Amino acid sequence: MSPKIELASLVIGRSTLSVGFKKLRETPGTSLPAPPQVRKPSSLKEFRRSAILDAATRVFGDKGYDETRMDDVAAAAALSKATVYAYFDSKDEIFVAAVERCLQEITDLTTPRVEAATDFPAKLNAFLITRLSYWGDRLALYRVIVTLKRESHNLKRSLRWQRPTIYFLMVLFQHAMQAGDIPEQPFEPAAWALMDMIRGLLERRMAHPNSSIEQEAAELTAFMLRALGYKRPATTP
């Protein structure tokens, strides 16, 4: 039996993402979670914080985590180090905020594209293209994230960052089951396996940056459809 997805409150850093998936199997009409509205910086404080995170994203990607200093971030943001410290207490706090902003951006991009797709293969393909494209444009930062993830003291944080996406995929698979597209099965292992395969493709892209994202997404979509026991002819948009 596939486990029911109960109401989950997913904590991401200092923010909380509430995912209303209560008894989803009993409510076939439930839609995927809508992305939150993203506000542009509306004050000097918000603008400076955003500028610091923009600069930090570039610096971490260029120099790596260990070699990045607060002075580097301040210089890249054209701010004094004292100003940077007024917003963030440490380099690690900046790094966490930068990564979590990226994760929020991915959510904001992914949800409407998946919702707009017409069937399960198209939704899965939209999810993959969005994720591969987003990190494909930020491979330097992604390399830093993956490197830190392999250190045992960072593993728990990395798993926490991935949990909202795992729930998103579980809901997507649950909807496909309710539509009769795939049989009932444990969806959480399938979601984790898909995330591992995405990571593998992105790591390969570090060595072969000119590979086709569309082709990679199509091939992985076809593989997952077979693995999940998709019952209709697969069509890739």
Automatic annotation (TrEMBL):
MF GO annotations: DNA-binding transcription factor activity; transcription cis-regulatory region binding
SUPFAM superfamilies: Homeodomain-like, Tetracyclin repressor-like, C-terminal domain
Keyword terms: DNA-binding, Transcription, Transcription regulation
Gene3D superfamilies: Homeodomain-like, Tetracycline Repressor, domain 2
DNA-binding feature ranges: 69-88
Span of domain HTH tetR-type: 46-106
Name this polypeptide is given: Transcriptional regulator, TetR family
Species the sequence originates in: Bryocella elongata
